[in-house]
From TrEMBL, chain A:
Species assigned in the record: Modicella reniformis
Identification of the protein by name: Exosome component 5
Subcellular localization(s) per the UniProt record: Nucleus
GO function term, MF aspect, one: RNA binding
Record-annotated Exoribonuclease phosphorolytic domain positions: 13-133
Major place of residence: nucleus
GO cellular component annotations of the record: cytoplasmic exosome (RNase complex); nuclear exosome (RNase complex); nucleolus
A Pfam match: RNase_PH
Domain of life: Eukaryota
Keyword annotations: Exosome, Nucleus, rRNA processing
Record-stated family: Belongs to the RNase PH family.
Any one Gene Ontology BP term: nuclear mRNA surveillance
From TrEMBL, chain B:
GO molecular function, one term: mRNA 3'-UTR AU-rich region binding
Residues annotated as domain Exoribonuclease phosphorolytic: 49-182, 216-281
InterPro entries: ExoRNase_PH_dom1 (IPR001247), ExoRNase_PH_dom2 (IPR015847), ExoRNase_PH_dom2_sf (IPR036345), Exosome_comp_Rrp42_subfam (IPR050590), PNPase/RNase_PH_dom_sf (IPR027408), Ribosomal_Su5_D2-typ_SF (IPR020568), Rrp43 (IPR033196)
Lineage, opening ranks: Eukaryota, Fungi, Fungi incertae sedis, Mucoromycota, Mortierellomycotina
Protein name in the entry: Ribosomal RNA-processing protein 43
Family as reported in the entry's similarity comment: Belongs to the RNase PH family.
Keyword rRNA processing applies: yes
Organism annotation: Modicella reniformis
GO biological process, any: U5 snRNA 3'-end processing
Gene behind this protein: EXOSC8
Localization per record: Cytoplasm; Nucleus, Nucleolus
Length: 249, 294
């Protein structure tokens, strides 16, 4: 079955990724991440001075500013800011930079579905570019369940989202969480064939769906997130290779 | 001689704390001591919720209202119906506008001024549950297509804040929406007339109730410590030291309406399943409490 955007043949296919790091001159780190027609640019400034009121004695203050494609930031952007901050804050080793501030600005450039996922991926690339010490790397994928076919569609476009009965955003990190592997998990793994190491870092689902559909989506997104992880890895290693060649020349 | 000194030192440490001082200095360690014994400082078991009450119709001047108490958290929700002009791209749909207010009244954690991020996020979560789970058909709020529709202002005010504001607010919103009575309007030559006396209690034909397709109710949990122990219905202190939060919103048929997980810790699918199972029990308890007071 072909997807509504006609470039994809499988419901589990993602749109082509694109990323570009270090494209803003005045920021300490920046990155752009695209999922097909969706594009988010993200800048990181820091560790820098922080307002006395926001200063934390034992770690850096992380501030996220989300800017929409058009108009002024609203309630939606506040939710986006909160989601990204709550997820990134523990990932950043902020204890290494006490009493400083790290500001992350997320600007939507093109909107065609999955903005939250695109923003997550752009933010992690920008943090890598800025050289902020991180505990692990995250990757995010969105999926919907189509109301007509009950099929899970990964990385939907806006057009596909209008037919969704539910929307699910997931973030997974690249470390196998030791705490999530306990005997019960392994036992369950054998009969339900669920990867026991699937640790959800962030999840946000709305709509109407059953418990089984939710876990099916989680597993589909987990598999797809591995591709995003691989892409981020290649992007970073290519960038470092280029930098190394430039310094040698 | 030397050995006796160390022995006496071990027996009586240089200084001791009272339990409440210890709690203030090392909140996480204090909690850990309780959690390792399978209880919480307030006497609850790890998966038990605080006592909950729901009262409907507490504000007589509103079209619908409810007050919900979950332990130390109290919220009041009022629904006011106003006649408004519909949007051009949706001429037959009314408005449903939820808003959560966390003012300095309810806790010293909130400052006066524009709505805090938390208040905006809770408002947005409730808004998304109401819209995306099709709780109410907005076409039911139409008075005259393209001319006049009902606009429902759903305002939640927190009176006392002790954690788990999302569960409390969503319960209050659903109870208040179930309580709404709106007098039947008539539309004549550009004027909307609302007839009858302002008596919303009586079961007459002059007013109508909202047709709610479903009643989503939620259950929230926090993950505590590196062991990622699940604590149901977190209070303010538990929220502050949590490693992550999980909220499950479920309707009466057992369908999920929203799932959210935020925070530092990664959650295994097994603990997500535990949360969903517990949320299922909890939403039934909550539904029983809601119907009791109706």
């Amino acid at each position: 079955m072909s997807r509504l955007d006609r470039t994809r043949t499988s419901p589990h296919q993602l749109r082509p990724f694109f990323s570009s790091q270090n494209l803003l001159n005045r920021a300490d780190g920046s990155a752009q991440f695209d999922f097909g027609g969706s594009s988010v640019i993200c800048s990181v400034v820091g560790p820098a001075e922080v307002k006395i009121r926001d200063e934390k004695l034992d770690r850096a203050t992380i501030e996220i500013v989300a800017r929409p494609l058009v108009g002024l930031p609203g309630v939606k952007d506040k939710t986006l800011e909160r989601n990204i901050r709550e997820t990134l804050e523990p990932l950043i080793l902020s204890g290494l930079h006490p009493r400083t501030g790290i500001q992350i600005v997320v600007q939507t450039m093109k909107e065609d579905g999955c903005i939250l996922s695109t923003a997550f991926n752009a933010a992690i690339l920008a943090l890598l570019d800025a050289g902020i010490p991180l505990k692990s790397i995250l990757a995010s994928v969105t999926c919907i369940i189509d109301s007509r076919t009950n099929q899970i569609l990964l990385d939907p476009t806006i057009e596909e989202t209008t037919h969704a009965k539910s929307t699910h955003v997931f973030v997974f990190d690249n470390k196998v969480s030791i705490s999530s592997i306990n005997p019960e998990d392994v036992a369950m793994d054998e009969d339900s064939k669920e990867p026991s190491h699937t640790g959800i870092l962030f999840s946000d689902s709305t709509g109407l769906f059953t418990e089984d559909e939710f876990f099916e989506c989680a597993n589909a997104c987990f598999k797809a997130a591995q591709a995003v992880h691989g892409f981020i890895r290649t992007a970073v290693s290519k960038k470092l290779e280029k930098e190394y060649q430039q310094t040698r020349a | 001689m030397a050995s006796s000194t160390t022995a006496s030192l071990a027996a009586s440490p240089a200084f001791t704390f009272s339990a409440s001082t210890f709690q203030k200095l090392h909140p996480t360690e204090y909690f850990r001591k309780f959690v390792s014994q399978g209880v919480r400082p307030d006497g609850r078991l790890l998966n038990s919720f605080r006592p909950t009450t729901v009262h409907q119709g507490v504000i007589t001047t509103a079209n619908g209202s409810a007050m919900v108490r979950i332990g130390g958290t109290t919220v009041v929700c009022g629904v006011k119906a106003e006649v408004a002009e519909p949007k051009l791209d949706a001429p037959d749909q009314g408005y449903l506008v939820p808003n959560v207010d966390l003012s300095p009244i309810c806790s010293s954690a909130f400052r006066p001024g524009p709505p805090s991020e938390q208040a905006q996020v809770v408002s947005d979560q409730i808004n998304r549950v109401l819209k995306e789970s099709n709780v109410l058909d907005l076409k039911d709020l139409c008075i005259e297509e393209g001319k006049a529709v009902w606009s429902l202002w759903v305002d939640v005010v927190c009176v006392s804040y002790d954690g788990n504001i999302y569960d409390a607010s969503l319960t209050a919103v659903m109870a208040a929406l179930a309580n709404v009575r709106i007098r039947k309007p008539t539309y004549e030559e550009g004027v909307v007339k609302v007839s009858g006396v302002d008596n919303t209690d009586e079961d007459d034909n002059s007013s109508f109730k909202l047709k709610l397709a479903r009643t989503p109710l939620s259950a929230s949990f926090v993950l505590f410590d590196t062991s990622l122990t699940l604590l149901a219905d977190p209070n303010f202190a538990e929220e502050a030291i949590s490693e992550g939060q999980i909220s499950i919103t479920i309707d009466e048929q057992g369908k999920l309406c929203a799932v959210s997980k935020v925070g530092a810790a990664t959650t295994s699918l097994t603990s997500m399943r535990q949360c969903v199972d517990r949320a299922r029990e909890r939403s039934q308890e909550l539904r029983a409490i809601m119907n009791q007071h109706q």
